[in-house]
Amino acid sequence: MNFVSTKEAPEAIGPYSQAVQVGNLIYTSGQIALTPDGNFLDESVEVQTEQVLTNLSNVLKAGGSELGKVVKTTIFLENMEDFAVVNEIYSKHFKEHKPARSTVAVKTLPKNAKIEIEAIALLGEK
């Protein structure tokens, strides 16, 4: 088991790792709209989704993977009415790659974020 850490994504805000690599898989912790220097983007769901996906991409890169190797994501939304706009931004980042996914509405997220995304991805070859 290897713990992944990068300065290109925000540090964990609790007792957990940005990601953990086990075998040929990397499991990311949920990412919210924190910048790498720890500032929270308390803005629209569009702005937050872009930052979340940038953070997720940077954590995966640090662990030897990428968005194109993601096999499963879980999206947590503060408001399910944001589903369509999140899908639009998500599809721009994942392009033709379509990993398995779950999306759930939750009462609250850390820092009152509008969105959080976690992923499981392959290492090495696709």
CATH topology: 60s Ribosomal Protein L30, Chain: A
Helix/strand/pairing class, anyone? alpha+beta
CATH homologous superfamily, by name? Answer: RutC-like
Please give the count of helices.
2
Helix-strand string: EEEHEHEE
Strand order, sheet with most strands: 1-2-3-6-4-5
CATH architecture: 2-Layer Sandwich
Count the domains. 1
CATH class: Alpha Beta
Short description:
This protein has helices at residues 45-62, 83-94; strands spanning 2-4, 19-22, 25-28, 70-77, 100-105, 115-122. With 126 residues, the protein is α+β, with helices and mostly antiparallel strands.
Features:
60s Ribosomal Protein L30, Chain: A, alpha+beta, 126 residues, single chain, 6-stranded mixed β-sheet
Written account of the structure:
By secondary structure, the protein is an alpha+beta fold. The chain has a single domain, classed as RutC-like (60s Ribosomal Protein L30, Chain: A, 2-Layer Sandwich). Helices cover 24% and strands 26% of the residues. The chain contains 2 helices and 6 strands; from the N terminus they run E-E-E-H-E-H-E-E. Strands 1-2-3-6-4-5 form a 6-stranded mixed β-sheet, with helices on one face. Helix 1 packs parallel to helix 2. It is globular and about 35 Å long. The two termini are 21 Å apart. The mean pLDDT is 96.
